[in-house]
Amino acid sequence: MRSNRKPWGLRWRSSVWFITGGTTSCITTDLLAYSIIIPVLPFQLERLSYHEVSSLTGWLLFAYSVGLVLSTIPIAICSERYSSRRIPLLLGIIALLGSQVMFMEAPNFPVMALARVIQGISSSMVWIVGLALLCDTTPETSVGRQLGIAMTGLPLGLLVGSPAGGALYSRFGFRAPFIFGEICTLVDLFLRLLIIEKDVALKWGYGYDPSKPNVAAIDTSSAPVIHLTTLSTIPSIQAQKHLEMDTDELEYSMLSGKRQLIRDELPNEPRPSISQRSSILTSSPVRKPLPLLSVIGKLARSPRALVALTMSFVYGIVNSMQEPSLPLHLQDVWGYNSDQVGLVYLAALLPAMISSPVAGYIVDRQGPSYLTCICLLLTLPWWIVMTLRSSLPLFIFALAAQSFFVSGVISPVTTELAAEARNMPGVGYAHVYGAFNLAFGIGTAVGPVIGGQMYDHAKHGWTAVCCITAALIVICITLAFCYTGADPLLAKIMRQQYPLVVKKPDEESTSHSDAFTTD
């Protein structure tokens, strides 16, 4: 039987900050388990007498992405349909534990590849369900900040995993990095067991329900008011005019910038009681999940969503394309071993831990359009600098600088997808983050293969990797300039040049304020 006893620690276990910490832990553990073997894979494959090590390393990373991509759609659909976040997270951690043990004991390359496929499936559960859980719990005004904090788990996992993997492998052998990863995974399992979802907390009167409007907090000073009984004589409404609201009127409040409609009592319709009005005002609409094809159709018709997903795809390529080639580049040019490669990763990823939460804070206050373009523009020159072989300190500084700026793009991208989920009826957070995970997964699938093959077969392999990355960033700058944000930079510039032709998005919606139909 279901217990009616209030869960222990309900308030803090269901709080926004604890959920944010739990999501950060999920992402950190996932990336730690992913990256802890990257510095050691080439050396382990060489020890097992394999040839063309960079290519084989790329295929192992590709196997991870295959599991991630193939599992994304079913995980997103099931999570949104059954509205359960905790169970998939627990299943994901169990799959992660099993995959690490399998890889640690793998006698040959095919078993290694299978273990990476299973690890990719567990990663899908973390990214899709974890980010959806965080957005479920967080108020809309703080989504960017909390996502930015959670995204610090990405560089943090890479930060700990890469140097720890190199050091443990050098001193204790191939199994040591996996034992360390399993210990971290067990700690994360404990945190996942403590998480209480929003729906459970609301039954006990705790937590914030993003689907319920706070009527008292809504500013009606700029909201147009339409009296349906006098539609023939609709007055001109000034944007900042304060209107006195009759307490006998029934209010319908719409969030997300939509206009507020205040309806007079209709003829021959019984007047609702105060308690009935309160129930109407506080009840939240039930969002029925759409079929898969409908979700795909809605996302495909949204330029903002498509651009955000394109940048997720490019981010996956950029990060993963250097993974099989960077350790070998450092070894070939400067004679670095696995320990030293891990330290280079450490120096490169520290700045990324700062940029992600700062970017999330800025997005909540300024919007994503300026920040996305600035971060991408400042990322571009450092990839050109990294083609130089004259100075190792300059190379490490350039690697750290590009990591700082490219990590600043993730918070705007994830916030854009959350905004699109709120604006599309029937599309949930698990849907958009499933699409995000799919795009990122495809990028991480093709990236290592491209990077490994180019480094092995091109005359100047590392230079080719850097040039392709720079070209992809230029494409992202163009798309972000045209489409990122509710009011993209291109639209702002066009409005300055042609103020009578191009309108702001809110002005366009206000111009249709009299286009109401009644039953």
Descriptive overview:
By secondary structure, the protein is an all-alpha fold. It folds into two domains: 10-205 and 288-486, MFS general substrate transporter like domains (Growth Hormone, Chain: A, Up-down Bundle); 215-282, no CATH class. 68% of the residues lie in helices and 1% in strands. It has 22 helices and two strands. The chain has helices at residues 10-13, 16-35, 41-47, 53-82, 86-104, 109-137, 143-150, 153-172, 175-194, 198-203, 274-282, 292-300, 303-321, 326-334, 338-366, 368-385, 392-407, 410-423, 429-457, 461-483, 489-497, 505-510; strands at 250-252, 261-263. A two-stranded antiparallel sheet has the order 1-2. It starts with 9 loop residues before the first helix and ends in a 9-residue tail after the last helix. The relative contact order is 0.14. Residues 213-286 and 508-519 have low confidence and may be disordered.
Quickly count the domains: 2
Approximately what portion of the residues adopt beta-strand conformation? under 5%
**Uncertain stretches:** 213-286, 508-519
The class by helix and strand makeup works out as mainly alpha
Helix and strand sequence: HHHHHHHHHHEEHHHHHHHHHHHH
Rg calc:
26 Å
Largest sheet: 2 strands, antiparallel
Domain Major facilitator superfamily (MFS) profile: 14-488
Subcellular location: Membrane
Protein name: MFS general substrate transporter
GO molecular function: transmembrane transporter activity
